[in-house]
């Protein structure tokens, strides 16, 4: 009886602990939900702000393109025909991806790039542009094809006067394509509405096409008033977050106004998505509470049943004693059964004739009772009786019958055997087993509840961690750990803008980073960017902020400098930090940087204007030879515009046959016989006249146009030398200059071989000239490509020796034939003995290394006499012939 009471107390205490744990879990859920809602609202607002900035960047980018086109001479010059301007607009539409572009006079009469005449004088965007204001229109129905479009309009300025309006239209679909890319989870949505509530961008395009007004039509659409309240609050604030109900589902949303417009960017997600994990725990807690109640009631019922069963067992035991209803099994020393009473037959299901003298006691013992059977045998061997032994037997059907036995030794007139006298306790064992299992189940449920509480705590911590990750993703570069553009722009707004102190923006761009990516792979490129970030952090101080803007572009914001010398000192330190090579995966990679500097407030009073100015200055630094810095001024802007025009003109120059080759002969000094020719590229542009190679070659390299242009030069030069050879001059060769960009191409050697085969030339008829400084930019990769050319049999020259690294130590390892001495050394021959001796020493050393020497730019007889004294092999220059066309 006391055992039953003790087990009941265990059950009751377990249920009480479980109910208390569920209540505690409910409190944790309630307070965690409040914290999560607050964190989600802040995160949705942040994501909406980033989405608004992404839309703004797209809009401003398109507007900037139109402004650039409007600034071209062909567009703004009123003396150029309209037909010519329309041709340019057609090309720009194809290149930029606008639906169409149009040009309008001051009366509002316009003509599109498709040649369609349209009146736009009453359009708001035309009126603003006519007043000199570049602007982006609200959605309007196009008068050309009646589609819903956004218009980007800018004034056309000539001699500081507005002479017309240039505008481009874009199908409103492009805004929805932007919002489609910005989503929160599987069921989240983003959208754009204007300040009147009209839908401009949405995943459901019919809402955009029908110009659905959520503020006016919410009742017609069957929406809850919470929808109206949310969108009303959006019109009153720049940013914010809230919730509303759609089709019975609670939606959380954030919004932000898109700068420069009256539009709002919104992002939403259903509560079911946000709270999916915590709801699962909530349902589980509810299940546990219900289960606890059921278990409690079942336990009460079970205790009553157990009490009755125990009473029945006691009654049965008393009756068994009274009626001798016990099981008796006798067996000899070999274990063979000799006695098997009627109760044994009833309990175990065997007949006496099946058992007596045929079966052993061990044949009936349950495998789980083998240890107790062995204990029985030990007592038998010692002739010791047993008062109580649990020994389970299996009946005829294989079912286990739990028995408790006493052991007696029988001596029947000398016939000795052992006798087990026992009773069936299977029912009692079953009841006890059920009690144990019930207790174990309750204990298991309690442990699961405790684990659920721990899981809830961990998920809350996980949500907090993810909030921090969202903030990190929004404001820091994931690769380098530096601040990103959003972060540094916010720093400028909070700490510099509207102050009287001076500040500087240093825009850094790595020189030839694309070469590293193409040569070593993007993994090495990423590792290099990480090393560069560490390099920058080691140079700046605590008052300066470093950021990675993207790709290989970095920025340093220098706060409160006292004079320009401090800015220059920082730029010099940054450049100096790149002098040592970076070790990455057993490779030593050398790279430099170009820095553009814009000053606040001299060059602009806002971050974006200063960013643009520093970017322009950086390109000027690159144009000055890279690995340097430059301050922004208006003249640089003019140079950038000039560069863009040159680049645009070059695209059509090849097919328009504007390029040509001039050829300057090279002579053997000893015999005066022509050794060959150097091919020199010239450009007579239809728009710019003759353009210097020093100007357009660099632009061709940075834009990638050097690849088709270089192939054209190689093909044209080989065609020329083939004609010379056909005239009977079999031993002549043609020298062609090669850019490092061409060397980088995987098919360069194959293309050289194909051109030689095309014209039936021997490899020795072609001499490729590689500039010394370009060769040394990545000596390992360039040497590999040069050796491939050498195996082909093509001659190789090191051009402009002395202008670049001027190192003689690596010459013996280079597979070259000819060393070309730069003109500057030749010009200095007659100026001083020191410089003339240096030129002579270079010739002598080259001969010792087995190289031939070509002297460039020989213009005077005294120079030729000096070169003859040192046995220079070949010369070229105006003394013999200037470069001549074909």
Automatic annotation (TrEMBL):
Keyword Flavoprotein: no
InterPro entries: Biofilm_reg_signaling, dCache_1, EAL_dom, EAL_sf, GGDEF_dom, Nucleotide_cyclase, PAS, PAS-like_dom_sf
Broad class of the protein's primary localization: membrane
CC per GO annotation: plasma membrane
One Pfam short name: GGDEF
Domain PAS: residue ranges: 313-384
BP GO terms, sorted: regulation of DNA-templated transcription
Domain GGDEF, residue spans: 501-634
Coiled coil: 428-466
Gene3D superfamilies cross-referenced by the UniProt entry: 3.30.70.270, EAL domain, PAS domain
CDD domains: EAL, GGDEF, PAS, PDC1_DGC_like, PDC2_MCP_like
The keyword Cell membrane is annotated on this UniProt entry: yes
SUPFAM superfamilies: EAL domain-like (SSF141868), Nucleotide cyclase (SSF55073), PYP-like sensor domain (PAS domain) (SSF55785)
Membrane topology, record value: Multi-pass membrane protein
Localization annotation: Cell membrane
Every EAL domain range: 643-886
Residue spans crossing the bilayer: 9-32, 281-301
UniProt keywords, alphabetically: Cell membrane, Coiled coil, Membrane, Transmembrane, Transmembrane helix
NCBIfam families to which the protein is assigned, alphabetical: GGDEF, sensory_box
Protein name (record): PAS domain S-box-containing protein/diguanylate cyclase (GGDEF) domain-containing protein
């Amino acid at each position: 009886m006391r055992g039953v009471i003790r087990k009941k107390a265990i059950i009751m205490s377990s249920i009480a602990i479980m109910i208390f744990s569920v209540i505690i879990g409910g409190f944790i859920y309630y307070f965690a939900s409040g914290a999560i809602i607050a964190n989600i609202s802040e995160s949705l607002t942040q994501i909406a702000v980033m989405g608004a900035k992404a839309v703004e960047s797209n809009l401003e980018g398109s507007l900037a393109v139109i402004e650039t086109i409007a600034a071209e001479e062909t567009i703004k010059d009123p003396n150029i025909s309209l037909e010519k301007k329309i041709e340019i607009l057609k090309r720009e539409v194809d290149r930029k991806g606008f639906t169409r572009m149009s040009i309008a006079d001051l009366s509002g009469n316009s003509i599109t790039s498709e040649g369609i005449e349209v009146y736009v004088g009453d359009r708001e965007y035309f009126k603003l542009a006519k007043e000199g204001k570049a602007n982006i229109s609200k959605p309007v129905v196009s008068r050309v094809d009646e589609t819903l479009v956004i218009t980007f309009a800018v004034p056309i300025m000539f001699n500081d006067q507005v002479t017309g309006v240039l505008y481009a239209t874009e199908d409103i679909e492009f805004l929805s394509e932007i919002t489609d890319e910005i989503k929160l989870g599987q069921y989240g949505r983003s959208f754009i509405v204007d300040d009147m509530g009209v839908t401009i961008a949405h995943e459901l395009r019919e809402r955009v096409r029908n110009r659905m007004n959520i503020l006016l039509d919410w009742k017609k659409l069957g929406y809850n008033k919470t929808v109206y309240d949310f969108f009303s609050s959006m019109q009153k604030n720049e940013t914010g977050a809230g919730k509303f109900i759609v089709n019975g589902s609670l939606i959380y949303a954030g919004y932000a106004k898109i700068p420069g417009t009256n539009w709002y960017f919104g992002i939403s997600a259903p509560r079911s998505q946000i709270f999916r994990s915590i709801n699962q725990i909530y349902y589980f807690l509810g299940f546990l509470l219900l289960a606890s109640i059921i278990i409690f009631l079942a336990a009460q019922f079970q205790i009553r049943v157990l009490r009755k069963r125990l009473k029945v067992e006691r009654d049965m035991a008393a009756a068994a004693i009274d009626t001798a209803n016990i099981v008796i099994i006798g067996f000899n020393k070999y274990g063979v059964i000799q006695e098997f009473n009627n109760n044994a037959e009833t309990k175990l299901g065997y007949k006496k004739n099946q058992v007596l003298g045929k079966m052993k006691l061990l044949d009936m013992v349950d495998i789980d009772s083998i240890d107790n059977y062995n204990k029985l045998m030990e007592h038998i061997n010692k002739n010791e009786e047993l008062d109580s032994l649990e020994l389970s037997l299996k009946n005829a059907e294989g079912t286990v019958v739990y028995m408790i036995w006493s052991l007696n030794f029988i001596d029947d007139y000398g016939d000795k055997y052992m006798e087990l006298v026992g009773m069936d306790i299977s029912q009692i064992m079953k009841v006890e087993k059920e009690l144990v299992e019930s207790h174990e189940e309750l204990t298991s449920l309690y442990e699961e509840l405790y684990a659920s509480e721990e899981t809830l705590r961990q998920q809350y911590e996980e949500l907090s961690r993810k909030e921090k990750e969202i903030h990190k993703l929004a404001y820091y570069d994931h690769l380098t750990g530096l601040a990103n553009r959003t972060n540094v722009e916010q720093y400028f707004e909070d700490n510099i803008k509207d102050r009287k102190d001076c500040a500087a923006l240093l825009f850094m761009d790595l020189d030839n980073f694309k070469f590293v990516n193409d040569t070593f792979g993007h993994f090495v490129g990423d590792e290099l960017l990480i090393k560069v970030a560490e390099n920058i952090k080691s140079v700046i101080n605590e008052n300066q902020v470093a950021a990675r803007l993207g790709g290989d572009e970095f920025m340093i914001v220098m706060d409160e400098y006292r004079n320009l010398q401090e800015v220059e000192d920082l730029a010099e330190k940054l450049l100096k930090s790149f002098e040592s090579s970076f070790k990455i995966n057993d490779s030593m990679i050398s790279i430099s940087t170009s820095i553009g500097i814009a000053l606040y407030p001299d060059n602009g009073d806002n971050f974006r204007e200063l960013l643009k100015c520093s970017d322009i200055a950086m390109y000027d630094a690159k144009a000055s030879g890279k690995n340097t810095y430059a301050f922004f001024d208006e003249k640089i802007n003019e140079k950038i515009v000039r560069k863009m025009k040159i680049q645009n003109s070059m695209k059509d120059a090849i097919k328009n046959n504007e390029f040509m080759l001039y050829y300057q002969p090279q002579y053997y000094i000893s015999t005066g016989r022509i050794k060959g020719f150097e091919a020199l590229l010239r450009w007579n542009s239809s728009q710019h006249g003759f353009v210097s190679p020093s100007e357009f070659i660099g632009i061709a390299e940075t834009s990638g146009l050097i690849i088709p242009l270089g192939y054209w030069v190689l093909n044209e030069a080989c065609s020329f030398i083939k004609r010379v050879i056909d005239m009977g001059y079999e031993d002549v060769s043609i020298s062609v200059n090669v850019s490092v960009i061409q060397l980088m191409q995987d098919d360069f050697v194959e293309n050289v071989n194909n051109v030689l085969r095309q014209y039936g030339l021997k490899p020795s008829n072609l001499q490729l000239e590689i500039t010394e400084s370009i060769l040394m930019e990545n000596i390992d990769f360039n040497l590999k490509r040069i050796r491939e050319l050498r195996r082909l049999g093509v001659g190789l020259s090191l051009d402009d020796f002395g202008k670049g690294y001027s190192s003689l130590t690596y010459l013996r390892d280079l597979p070259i034939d000819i060393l070309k001495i730069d003109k500057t050394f030749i010009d200095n021959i007659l100026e001083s003995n020191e410089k003339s001796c240096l030129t002579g020493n270079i010739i002598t050393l080259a001969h010792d290394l087995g190289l031939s020497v070509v002297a460039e730019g020989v213009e005077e007889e005294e120079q030729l006499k000096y070169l003859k004294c040192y046995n220079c092999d070949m010369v070229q220059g105006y003394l013999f012939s200037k470069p001549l066309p074909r």
